[in-house]
Amino acid sequence: MNKFLVFDMDGTIADLYGVDGWLDDIHARDAHPYAEARPLVDMEKLNDILNQLKEFGWYIVVTSWLAKGSTKAYDTAVRKAKREWLEAFGFPYDEIHLVKYGTTKADCTRKYGGRQVLFDDNAKVRNGWHLGEAIDATEMMEYLATLL
Ligand SMILES: [Mg+2]
Questions:
Q1: What's the 52 CA to ligand 1 centre distance in angstroms?
Q2: Quick one: CA torsion of 59, 14, 31, 129, rounded to 10 degrees?
Q3: How far is the CA of 121 from the centre of ligand 1 (A)?
Q4: How many domains does the chain have?
Q5: CB of 19 within 8 A of CB of 37?
Q6: Which residues constitute the domain of residue 91?
Q7: 114 C-alpha vs ligand 1 centroid, how far in Å?
Q8: Where residue 114 sits, what CATH number does that domain have?
Q9: Taking 90 as the threshold, does the pLDDT of residue 30 lie above it?
Q10: pLDDT for residue 55
Q11: Continuous H helices in 3-103
């Protein structure tokens, strides 16, 4: 069976909302808050767990929204910042979907079927997930440990 772990970024692994002035910067189409966001968890620990889970056949996906009310140029800048952030912290993903704000996340990976566990800080997004469990960001590390 296909097994997927699907990660949100902002508010789940990246503390975008903890960056000073993040909303003003986003309104000004400045991608810096995405680059400057600190990790919300110990990334070394998270990566270690994910690398173990990959050996057990889990496939790691990032599905993250772009900025609300964005432009093409700003989307490009935000995509670059998000990819660089993941790279900087060595996040071991297999696949990435950086999609328009509000996109139904299940649409990105539904075609794969199997069991798909979503980690997301947004309750509305979690409630709209029907491909497997939907776990709140605050319970992410605990939940992952149960899969080992
Ligand atoms: Mg989020």
A1: 25
A2: 50
A3: 5
A4: 1
A5: yes
A6: 3-147
A7: 23
A8: 3.40.50.1000
A9: yes
A10: 97
A11: 22-27, 32-36, 43-55, 72-88
pTM over 0.90: yes
Statement: residue 1 has pLDDT above 90: no
Burial of 39 (0-12, 13-18, 19+ CB in 10 A): middle
* Run of H or E including 95: strand 95-99
Query: What are all long-range contacts of 110-115, with beta carbons under 8 Å and residues at least 24 apart?
Result: 112/2, 112/4, 113/2, 114/1, 114/2, 114/3, 114/4, 115/1, 115/2, 115/3, 115/4
| Amino acid present at 127 | N
Distance in Å, CA 115 to ligand 1 centroid:
21
> What integer is the mean pLDDT of 69-75?
96
Residues 10-28: tens digit of each pLDDT:
999 999 999 999 999 999 9
